[in-house]
């Protein structure tokens, strides 16, 4: 179980890493393709201008972009009709552009998106060789301000990184919840093992002690010996029921049991379940009633064997905790789509502390494990009803009795 949880934890971490990497790669991809589109837009213009400048022609200035050309020694070549005196800003631009000149003269195209001192905080810069008669004469550059482009790119970055932050927080929250659930399940597993050990140990200890006493012939009174045998038989039956219920619950939770549904005569099911308890009520001096509403329930759609099992568990529970001269009742009501069966007793009820955990394994109201039964009945009932797609609920208060309700779909 620990290995399984560890693998799930690693899967969650890998998913988080992939998500973060995907977001970062997405942001960089947008920058790359956006930049590439601008380059493809400017490259043809630069190539045409390069041909004109190489042939000694001059071009007109434009506000869209700036053209700069240099010979192989780094001296600026005039490219505009209206030649002007170089300013301090031009000097900064020239210094930046000539730093790329060795690469450009070697025949490579330079592409940058960065700050160009003296021109713009963010600019697209493209440089290529200046060629005349198949001989490299120097380099020519085109610069275009990219403030609007940078603003759009920053908007993309903002969206991506906000998405990244929110997504990361959500994944971390789910990861934290998963770790919390893992710890809770691990604690439940430990408690379950401890409860099983205790439940199995109690009858085994009794059987062992009584058997050793009989084996050592410490007790010689025939009546006492019969009493010891009676206790051994009772504890053996209790042990058998506990093991049987554990196996039943395990099979139910691993969904290895059949839960085929079919139209069910609900009145006949209640009648069949109630018959043995009617006899038991006389022996226990209890009042056992089936209301007219329960006797006249419509056909429902469920699994007859499983509903019989659930009602038997609920009635057994009610009889177990109802005192002499108490009352156990099977009642019912119907809605447009559902039928509800209620098993009510006027016993001591269930305390507020126990009620939220009543369907858990080994939860008994007396908590001393002295009552009959395995403590698994209600867990089995809950598992059956859930797998049938129905509900089971409980309503109880201390000293006010208890009502268990199950729902069934009308046929």
Please describe the topology of this protein.
Elements: H1 2-54, E1 66-71, E2 76-77, H2 88-98, H3 101-105, E3 110-116, E4 120-132, E5 135-145, H4 147-215, H5 222-253, E6 262-264, H6 266-284, E7 287-290, H7 292-295, E8 300-302, H8 304-321, E9 327-334, E10 338-345, H9 377-387, E11 392-396, E12 402-410
Parallel strand pairs: 7-9
Antiparallel strand pairs: 1-2, 1-5, 3-4, 4-5, 6-8, 8-12, 9-10, 10-12, 11-12
Helix pairs in contact: 1-4, 4-5, 5-9, 6-8, 8-9
Task: Output the radius of gyration.
Answer: 43 Å
What does the main sheet amount to?
A: 7 strands, mixed
Query: Strand fraction band?
Result: 15-25%
Give the % helix: 40-55%
In DSSP terms (H or I, runs of 4 or more residues), the helix count works out at 9
The CATH architecture assignment of the domain at 258-410 turns out to be 2-Layer Sandwich
CATH superfamily of the domain at 258-410: Histidine kinase-like ATPase, C-terminal domain
The end-to-end span amounts to 42 Å
Order of helices and strands: HEEHHEEEHHEHEHEHEEHEE
Shape annotation: elongated
CATH C-level category of the domain at 258-410 = Alpha Beta
Q: Structural class of the secondary elements? A: alpha+beta
Total number of strands: 12
Provide the CATH topology of the domain at 258-410: Heat Shock Protein 90
**Low-confidence segments:** 1-5, 363-374
InterPro entries: HATPase_C_sf, HATPase_dom, His_kinase_dom, HisK_dim/P_dom, HisK_dim/P_sf, Sensor_HK_Regulatory, Sig_transdc_His_kin-like_C
Catalytic activity: ATP + protein L-histidine = ADP + protein N-phospho-L-histidine
EC number: 2.7.13.3
Domain Histidine kinase: 195-411
